[in-house]
Amino acid sequence: MEDSGQLPNAQNEKTEEETNRSQYTMSGILHFIQHEWTKNELDRTRWEAERAEMQARIAFLQGERKGQENLKQDLVRRIKMLEFCLKQERAKNYRLTHNGEEPPSFDESANENSAPSDNSHLSADLDAYINDAGEAGGSFRQGRLLLKRYLEEIGYSEHIMDVRSFRVKNLLGLLPQTDLPSSERLNGRKEKSDSDSEDGHDDAALDADASKAFEEFDFLNSMDVKEKGSDADDWTGKGASYEKLIKQYKDDPKVKRRSRTSTEESDEKTSSEVHKNLETDVPPGIKSAIDASAQQELPTRRQGRRSANFGYGNGNELDVALGMQDNENMDIKDEFKDDDDDTNLPPVKWNIKVTLRSHLDTIHAMQFHPVEPVLFTASEDGLIKLWNLDQKKEDKHNSGGGTELEPVYTFRGHKGAVLCLVLSPTGDHLYTGGIDGNICCFNVPSSNGDPFDSYDPRVLSETLTGHTDAIWSVAYHSSNSRLVSASSDSTIRLWEPGNGEPLIRTIGAPQPGMIPTSVDFVSTETSHLLAAYTQCYAQIIDIDTGSTVMVFDFGPKVVGTPTMNKIVSHPTMPLTLIGGEDRTIRYFDNTTGAILSESLAHVEGVSSLAIDPNGLYLLSGSHDGSIRMWNMERKTCLQEISAHRKKNDAAVTSVAFHPSRSLIGSAGADSLAKVYVSGSN
Amino acid sequence: MTAVAENRVVRRNGPGTKRADWNCWPPLAFEEMDSALNIQQYIQQTIKANPSDVETILTPPLDQDEGVWKYEHLRQFCIELNGLALLLQRECVPETCQQMTATEQWIFLCAAHKNPNECPAIDYTRHTLDGAATLLNSNKYFPSRVNIKEISISKLGSVARRVYRIFSHAFFHHRKLFDEFENETHLCKRFTTYVSKYNLMQQEHLIVPILPNQQQQQTAQ
């Protein structure tokens, strides 16, 4: 307070001249000014604070958008990767089928030409890339190499094409259709983002956001594993590389810097920016394709959004399609959830859990234990094997090759191929039919036993003889312990195992020459039996009398007289499903016998069907090598898995649902059985 | 069943196929088998054509990788040996065959266990076949049926040696059953020719006199 010395003089002057005026003292004025100044200062600080807050918000929103863009970029890269592998494989396949000629330059665009050179130094660079944390391309290459090896192993490409187009459709199907709203939202966000942002906030926001984005990425990754899942070993390696990719992304300063400096104004700029980002770490082949697609993008944006043809002629189409989805990726999860809410169903994506290798020839039938995680498979090698899927994977026996799941028990009872099997509802008894015309009744031993225990002849409790030709289907009647068998001697027989005279009734073919192929009990009417036949015929039989209750009417669309391969009853409704050699799955009404629906389900004959215990999903297997999961109500395909390789013209022979656990299985002509689990586990 | 759809032969045994029609389709030239399991297809096709024509069955197609050829044949032997095991299951009980023997010279110990075990003959048979199936399907040794590593090929010899004992046990202890099986499948003859051709076993271990030269040796002794 330096004023204090002068203060008395000033005060005296003022009191003399302006005594009438109210007390405007120097000190009062100064005080007032001081006060006002402080107030202004305060206001200013508040505004500063507000401004900082707004900037933080802007930074957050910007970061969010960047995170989504990076997610999208990853997706584009992944699609490109798959596409590239596919092209490689196609070229290879062409060489193989055309005696090593180079493929004629079908659509060899710039990206194709530069790709092989990239490939040539691939193996040499691989080790270096693995340890190079700053280079996302390393794990990309590694992943691609693994993928390539896998593709080589499975040896076919047509199915891959199918899978890809289905996959892409599926992916796009998951993406939202809300073109306009989201772009509006995006524009609004951009106006805000014009001001400068503060780095600290930005980083934090981005990190949080990026990790969120990667949660989605994980979800996609698991989808991917399932899609290519037939060789689990390769994919564990791949999964690791993706983890690395994620880590690299998080550590990558480049990505963050880009996100801070972005001030683009329009949709068009956004997408080209994304492509610019991509250039930083994609191989040249892919890069050029992306450039091309960026140029193409604008004109095609409106028209080709969901182009139905994902044929491999136009490699950029995919980019375009995805590029258009550009800023909408952020809604993947929401949309997915909405879809689930519609139907009250959990998301169903099945991933391979284990491949069961022990049979030496085509597996013809499989069934899960009613309760336990136990599986039975019957094969053309004459054996039925019991698998415990929860078995401790320890190397108990020096004959085995390390830590693989081995069968717990091997049933021997048939001479030659075993064609069908059925379990009693308790899982204690197993009934199998074979090409030898016999039915073997087994007592199921413990699923935790030693596979190399000594032989107990009591396991095979009874052999039912009577059929004179191969037995193709058996069904077990749960309430009265009776067994029905369908044989190519044209008869269906009803048995009562354990009875002195087991054969109760023989039901002949409805017309001469017809052979029953598949039998199942009607779930809603237990004395009724469903029977499918060769020559496009199927009926309901009353097993108490042996008479026909209803003949299914196949309608006018049937071409020729295809064999009906598999008949199954809906678990809760009077509904029957039949899979036919004519690639069609048909739905019938049990009360009228009329056809309710038919759909061309596969590329080749449908060999097997299974319905989940709640009757919501249908699983079909076909000789085209794939299994497909269907939504029963909507009759839409939810997922396709390339499951088994062909031997001769046979591929998938059997599919199954676990009655009480979320496990499905498939078995095929390649001697393998596969078990899949749902969702993320 | 050879269902003809669109003038195309469909080579699969669909439901309803009669036993007589099993695998009964026009033979396909090896070059036209484009599946990854073509060797198995080819072997089974030639066996189906004439199971007694051992020479033809064991003649590989031109330029065939020998490792895969040997491997697929051994798989096929194991498949068919299940038929013999089934027959043995009927009459080879621990009471009569307490040990796995052929001649009096050797008692074979079962290699399926951690410590080789003196299993009864029927158990030895079952364990050996199950163990062979596991080994031939092992991801470690035989991850692929198209490319087989040289080191894995060496495993085939020990599998062959063990499963051969099933033949020899059946021959020396269940002769009637053996003859019944052999007349139908010619499996022992094919197996003996196979191991001799590819040198998977030593001649002195091939004790079942099934080939003409083996029979001559026996009469000479």
What does this structure look like?
Chain A: Its main location: cytoplasm. Chain A: It is found in: Cytoplasm. The complex is a heterodimer of chains A (681) and B (221). In chain A, strands 1-28-27-26 form a four-stranded antiparallel beta sheet. Chain A has three domains: 46 residues; 278 residues, no CATH class; 329 residues, YVTN repeat-like/Quinoprotein amine dehydrogenase (Methylamine Dehydrogenase, Chain H). Chain A has 681 residues and is an alpha+beta fold. In chain A, helix 11 runs antiparallel to helix 12 and helix 12 packs across helix 13. The termini of chain A are far apart. Chain A is elongated and about 125 Å long. Chain A is built from 14 helices and 28 strands. By secondary structure, chain B is mainly alpha-helical. Chain B has a single domain, classed as MOB kinase activator (Butyryl-CoA Dehydrogenase, subunit A, domain 3, Up-down Bundle). In chain B, 51% of the residues lie in helices and 4% in strands. Chain B is built from eight helices and four strands. In chain B, the strands form two sheets. Chain B has a two-stranded antiparallel ribbon with strand order 1-2. In chain B, a hairpin with a 2-residue loop joins strand 1 and strand 2. Chain B is globular, with a radius of gyration of 19 Å. Chains A and B meet through strand 14 of A and helix 3 and helix 4 of B.
